[in-house]
Amino acid sequence: MLTVIPTLVGVVIVTFLLTRVLPGDPAIYFAGPAATPQSIAEIRKTLGLDRPLLAQFVRYVDDLAHGDLGSSLSTGQPVVTEIASRLPASAELTLFALVISMSVAVPLGIVAAVRQGSWIDHICRVVATAGVSLPVFFTGLLLVYVFYFLLGWAPAPIGRLDVFFSAPTDRTGFYLIDGLIDLDFETTWAALKQLVLPALTLGIFSLAPIARMTRASMLALLGSDFVRTARASGLDNRTVIITYAFRNAMLPVITTLGMVFSFLLGANVLVEKVFAWPGIGSYAVEALIASDFAPVQGFVLTMAILYVALNLAIDLLYGVIDPRVRLEG
Amino acid sequence: MKEAAIPSGAAAAIPAAAPATGSMLRHARYVMAENPVTGVAFGLFVVIAVAALLGPYVVPYDPLASEVADKLQAPSLAHWFGTDQLGRDIFSRVVAATRLDFLIAITSVVLVLAGGGLAGIAAGYFGGWTDRIVSRLADTIMAFPLFVLAMGIVAALGNTVTNIVIATAIINFPLYARVARAEANVRRDAGFVQAARLSGNGEFRILLTQILPNIMPIMMVQISLTMGYAILNAAGLSFIGLGVRPPTPEWGIMVAEGAANIISGEWWIALFPGAALMLAVFCFNLLGDGLRDLVDPQRRT
Amino acid sequence: MTRKGLSRRELLKSSAATAAAGALAAPAVWTPARAAAARSETLLLVTENGPNNLDIQGLGTNRPGYEASWNCYDRLIVNATKTLPDGTLSYDRDKLEPELAEDMKVGDMSVTFALKKNAKFQDGTPVTAKDVKWSFDRAVSVGGFPTVQMKAGSLIKPEQFVAVDDHTFRVDFVQKDRLTLPDLAVIVPSIYNSELVKKHATAADPWGLDYTKSNTAGSGPYKVTSWKPGVEVVYERHDGWVGGKLPELKRIIWRTIPSSGNRRALMERGDADISFDLPTKDFAEMKQEGKVKIISTPISNGMYSVELNVKNPPFNNEKLRQALAYALPYKKIMDAAMFGLANPLFGGASNKVTSIAWPQPTGYVTDLAKAKSLMKAAGVGDGLSTTISFDLGDDVTCQPIAELIQESLGQLGIQTTINKVPGANWRSEMAKKSMPLMVNFFSGWLDYPEYFFFWCYHGQNAIFNTPSYQNKDMDALINGARQAAAAADNATYDKDVEGFITQAYTEVPRIPLFQPYLSVAAQKNISGYTYWFHRQLDYRSIRKA
């Protein structure tokens, strides 16, 4: 657990340096058209960009310690507020995508393992790999084209909710959950519909690692001693596969899920751009292009903390589920 | 940190030096017969490599020559893949792009091997502070949302092919470092290493001449996956506007630029480079699986 | 060993979720319950970017922010509307109408406005001359773009603005300037609810810029009731508006949709009402398809041009610049970048112009032989290498132009690398004035040639003078033209204007390419779209059948 701290420190330093190395001078950007050297210098002073790098870093760390992630120059809102409001959007999308992905990938992996070497095995491998071989934005646009534009099955890719619905009362930020708490089924249904295409895009992308991992661990388990014993003892096939093999196979899959989740949070960026999803991915990208430091720093830091927390949680979960594995990593 | 370990009973057996060539070929044939998909992947790889080498010389049109009067034409006999918004022949551009994308894939891999691979081996072999530093570095990079880190690096350094390759290498560093570290650790006191030590070889010499070649087969799997990933990364960066500079033909930027035309019905502009890209990444991924089967059947997934 | 039936069942069970997804076949975008009534009174606008600030006088406000200001605030006067020959509506440069003022008396060195007595701000308080003075003082004091824009019409010092009494307001001139009155009708001199804004001002922020950034404190036809930056803006009609005829639309929803393909899809499927920042190609194609209404208007006082840095080598060489002017593939550029939706600014009779029309074509055409000989005369016969830069935010138009230019210049032996500069850096790069070759667009709000030249060719070296062109003769002609305009001396004015255009075309620090059209896509039941010089959407005149 102590290894977490140097990692976070490293992240803070690298992010700060990276944003300072980005080309583009925010002072000029915000001096607006027809800026004069004086107005640019004034603005630079207001933004604190004229101080030496070390002084800026010290001020940054000090702000961090007070929970102040600064303000976005392009929207003028405090970064903490914006991230807090946009994070649930990305998280909801990613989680939903994972659910879709797992519901397809896990059975696929099981079947592939159980019928190893057969044509089903090959098809599964091909399908899973195909999903991850296309750029994610391309998949997204294709889905929009086919399911919205041509077939009209999916709703307009216009964000989390159609314009005529207002968001449910903000409790968790997850529209599906909040909508249900409010007992506003119309809004929940609308939010669900908007989620489908972007989640499908992300889900297709994460099929491969999950299917692969499931297949691998199922295979290993199906050949292991205790499964053979179970079979030899006369237990029927279903019990063997589900109760014995599958349960144990899920352990490494859970670890993979952790990696897949953080990987998806990164791939989010492109999907959010395609579907106008108001998540932190699109927030960070716009800020990056505008050389707006604070949101980028805030985004990276948030993601790093999430990633570290997630890994910690998975380690703990692993230790709880599998007593054999309670050792130092 | 936890590895995604397969909970089989025995630890992985330490492979000895590579078997004789004859039996290798026999083994290869066996693997391909077992798994026809791998055979297809190998064949595809050869096609791609040939296209990369010879492509620019045999294309019907100059990939850079515009002919605005013929812009946005659907695929036809004159232009097999149609033309783009400046009237350039898409087939020629797709074939010509093979070289650049192949280059991006290979140089990314070479760079990350040299960086992450070597760092990982050193960490696994020497342990101690080397291990701690390399592991911390890998953890720090892993904690970043990787695509945004790549974006940041390319935005900071400028969008040239070199920088895109550097960014890809950096974000894959942790993975290579981890795998190399694990493998080197296992081989640290293996028989052949001890023999080399006894013969008076220095530590670094052992690293480079004994351990590195020995783990290469395992790394080959990662390498083929990374090759596919490098191309996808370049495509994603192009979508944001941080990809290679126009008018260079590169699959990723052709897909990114053609993406907006899908809705207007000019599907061919994005589809053909997209298909080529997908085929290449697909091929590399399946190749990784096949190589794994070839090299270390115990690890077969 | 395994029974076939088992695995299939497993597969089906775990795929239940995916199967359910297929049942989501609901073609309607909104449930019938809310549909009809809400829809007909609301306009759904989709664009690539939204505002970053609702106040044009704010720091670093972007173009979409101008639209919010335009529709939520009043100004003293406003341009009238006229109908163009092809039936589209446009603002009338030459006719000014009262908006907040009900009467305007132009004196020799001042102009006096009588304000409408029943004018009210959106919070119900009456509008007085005190508010007008405070707003004008603010405009010339906040610095940055708003102050510079005021200056363009010789509105410089707070002393010029006098609140004579509660409903009378006077602007004193510091000099005679033809542009003063039109400058009062641009977006910048908006009238703010001074009491409300002052309540939220602080010592560090005396003009309340922080408050007006996210709140509209005006008297205009619409007010912003909800703003989620980067997502959407929701406007509601201000029913107490007296600046003109009350608009028909009660509610406007403005959504940010980054992907242009999706915006087009939304328009073609009828799920959005209006969009105006699609790529030109989409407009040209949709015009032919006829599913939606496309209205295109030439952008007044605007042009895309190739700009050359005349301070540094290699383009400080006039003959080399002229060589480039003959080397550009003009027709191909217009075809590839604008699909016919532009007016050519090349191929005119000669560079020595005989009219004051602006913009007008240069005398250059694509003539590679002439280009080559000029290059030799310039002493650069061997060729050179350089970079061509443009704003990444405008790459849909600029990239094909840059690629075609790169190809043509290659035939002259000039190797160019294409450099796409991300939005924020573009302004920095322009300020640095170090880019040798650029593809750029400029359009001036006040549609007079001397206005364009003041910003783009005058030795004051404003940021828009990207070539860094400084020439005493040019300055004399521009200043002369402005003075002649103020004095209503048409003869001198015409002479000076023709003079500065001729000089600009001969010395060619900037090679005009074309005057683009501004296009708007709207559903067939939308009418009343009016073209404005600021190129943003004016919601007041729009009607939904």
Mean pLDDT of chain B: 82
Q: Write down the overall mean pLDDT of chain C.
A: 88
Topology order of chain B in helix (H) and strand (E) letters: HHHHHHHHHH
* Largest interface by Cβ-Cβ < 8 Å: A-C, 70 and 74 residues
Structural class of chain C: alpha+beta
Q: Report low-confidence residues of chain C grouped into runs of 5 or more.
A: 1-33
Distance between the termini of chain C: 69 Å
Number of strands of chain C: 21
Our Rg estimate of chain B from Cα atoms comes to 22 Å
Q: Unreliable segments of chain B (pLDDT under 50, ≥5 consecutive)?
A: 1-18
User: Please, how many helices of chain C?
Assistant: 19
What does this structure look like?
The complex is a heterotrimer of chains A (329), B (301) and C (545). Chain A has 329 residues and is mostly helical. Chain A has 13 helices and no strands. Chain A has helices spanning 4-21, 26-31, 37-47, 53-65, 79-114, 119-133, 136-150, 175-181, 185-222, 225-232, 237-275, 280-289, 293-321. The longest helix of chain A has 39 residues, at 237-275. Chain A is globular, with a radius of gyration of 24 Å. With 301 residues, chain B is mostly helical. Chain B has ten helices and no strands. The two termini of chain B are 22 Å apart. In chain B, helix 3 (90-126) packs parallel to helix 6, helix 4 (128-143) packs across helix 6 (161-187) and helix 8 runs parallel beside helix 9. In chain B, 70% of the residues lie in helices and 0% in strands. In chain C, 35% of the residues lie in helices and 23% in strands. Chain C has 19 helices and 21 strands. Chain C has helices at 4-14, 16-22, 32-41, 63-72, 129-141, 144-151, 180-183, 194-199, 209-214, 260-268, 280-289, 318-327, 330-338, 368-378, 395-411, 423-432, 449-456, 472-486, 490-507, and strands at residues 42-47, 77-83, 89-98, 101-106, 110-115, 161-165, 168-172, 222-228, 232-237, 251-256, 274-275, 293-298, 302-308, 342-344, 384-391, 414-421, 437-443, 510-522, 526-527, 530-531, 543-544. Chain C starts with a helix and ends with a strand. The chains are: A mainly alpha (329), B mainly alpha (301), C alpha+beta (545). Chains in contact: A-B, A-C, B-C. At the A-C interface, helix 2, helix 3, helix 5, helix 7 and helix 9 of A face helix 1, helix 2, helix 3, strand 1 and helix 6 of C.
